[in-house]
Amino acid sequence: MPSVRINTRQTEGSVLVQVLFSHPMESGRVIDAQGIVIPAWYLTEVSLHLNDEPISLVTLSSLISKNPVLSFELADAQPGDDIKVRWTDSRAKTGERSAKLA
Amino acid sequence: MDRRTYLKTSVVSAAAAVLSREAAANGSVYQQAYEATTRGDSVQVDNRIRIQLPDSVENAAVVPVRIHSTISNTQKMVLLVDNHADAVVASCDFMGKAQTILSVHMRLEVACNVTALVYDGTRWYSYSAAIAELQHHCSGV
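Above: the input entities. Below: the C-alpha cells describing the complete assembly.
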C-alpha cells in the first residue's frame, strides 16, 4: 500500500493542498538486472474531497513519476475544513487519508 | 556494391524502418488518444491555457508540468504527450471548489510535445508546448 501525506498551506486567496504519495509507479516497461520485466503498478485514480464533497478527480497513467506529488488549489476552503484523498491503483487496491485544514 | 557497404546499407535501412514504424505507432497512439478524448469534436487553440515546463529538463524521470486554465467553467483538463507508448499522462475532472490547475511530474523517455486539452462543457480548447531537450540520469526511466 502506498503511504500518503497531505500538506496544506494558505496562499494568497486560496489554500494549496499537496498530496505526497510514496509509490513505485512502475510503468511495466522497465527490465530489471535479471532481464525480467518489472510488472506495472501505478496509481490510476486520485480523488480529492472537501467536507465529504468530491471536488476533483485525477486519472493517472504509467507516465507519472515515482512518488507522485499532486497539487490542488482550493478557492473557498476555510480553516477546520476536512480534506479527504481517496486513491485506486492498477492492482485495484484502494485507500484514503484525511486531514483538517489548519 | 561490396559486402561492407551492403551490410552498412542494410543495417541503416532496417534501423530506419524500425524507427519510422515506432514513430508512426507513437503518432497513432497520440492521435487516437486525442480523438478519443475530444470524440472528434473541433478543438480551438487558446492561450488562456498555460503550460509551465522547465526550460531545460535535467532528469527525464521527473519532469514537472503545471497546467492552468482560466477558461471559465473549465470542467476537464487532459495532459497528452506524443512519442511515447502512452499518450495520456493524466486527466482531471473539476467538480467545484478546486481551481483549474493540474500539477504533476512526468516520467518521459524522449523529447516530445506536451498538449493540454480543456473542456468547458460545450467545446474543447488546446495549447501545446515542446520539450526540446531531455537528459537521462542513472536512475533510469
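Note for the figure: Chain A touches chain B at residues 14, 25, 27, 29-30, 48, 50, 53-66, 68-77 (CB under 8 Å).
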